[in-house]
Amino acid sequence: MAPIRAEQRYVDGIAHRWLEAGHGWPVVLLHAFPVSAEMWRPQLEAAPEGYRFIAPELQSEAGQGIDGYANNVSVLLDALAIDTAAIGGLSMGGYVTFALYRFLPQRFSHMILADTRPQADTPDVRAGRETLRRLVAEAGPAAIADVMLPRLLSERARREQPDVVSAVRAMTTAQSAAAIEIALAAMLDRPDSTPDLGGIDVPVLLVTGEHDEVTPPEIAHEMEQMIPRAHATVIHGAGHLSSLERPDVFSRALHDFLLAQL
Ligand code: MLT
Fold first, then answer.
1. Fewer Cβ in 10 A, N or C end of the chain?
2. Which residue's CA is the closest to the ligand 1 atom numbered 4?
3. Minimum-distance ligand 1 atom for the alpha carbon of 129
4. Do 28 and 96 contact (CB within 8 A), yes or no?
5. pTM flag (> 0.85)
C-alpha cells in the first residue's frame, strides 16, 4: 500500500493543498462535488509502481467558474514542475478536466473521465442548483449532504457500506458553505464540451458506475463514439461515486489503462 502524503504549498499567496502517493509518471485525479481530494485515498493507496498519483483540492474564486479550478490545477502542476501528466476527474472533476484540456491540451498524456458528462446543465438541473444554493446559504453543508447522498451513492452502497456513507458525509460537511456555493455557480455556468470531444487526441479512459443516476453509463458510451482514442468501462454494482464504492475494480481499470498506453 503506497503511503499517502498530505501536502501544501503557497503560490502567489494562495495555499494549494493536495494528497499524493508513489513516485514516477504523474497521474492527476480531480474530485467530485461536494466532496474533496480525500475521495481518491483508495486509488492513492493503490498507486502502482512507477506512478505518482496526485489529488489536488479543487479551488476557485467566486466568478471564475469552472476555468478557475482548471487554472489552479495548472498553477499547482507548474509549482510541482510537472509539464505533462495523465489527468482526469470524476463528475465535477471531469468538468474541470474538459476545461483544462480546452486551454492546455499539451499538459495531457492521457485523460480519465469518470462518471461525468460533456454537456452543459439543462434548465432543470440549473433550477436544482439554484435550490441547492439557497439551501447551503440557509442550512449549511450538512443539508447539502442530506440531499446529495442518495444521488452520489447507489442504494446498495447506502445499505451495505456505512463507512463510505460516513466518508461522503464527512467530506461534504468539511466544506465551507462558500466553497459549495462557488462550485454550484461554476457548474451551472460551464459550457458544453461536446464540440471538443472529437479533438481530444490522447488516450481516454471512460469509467462509470452501472447504477450512476447522475451521469449514467450511456453518456460514457456516447463519448466513446465521439472521442478518437477512448475506451469505456462500467463498474458493476456501483453508483455515481464509483471509485469509492468499488475502489479495487476502479483502480484495476485505471492501472490497466495506464499500463496499456504508456
Ligand atoms: C459531482 O459528483 O461532482 C456532481 O454530482 C456533479 C453535478 O452535480 O453535475
1. N
2. 33
3. 8
4. no
5. yes
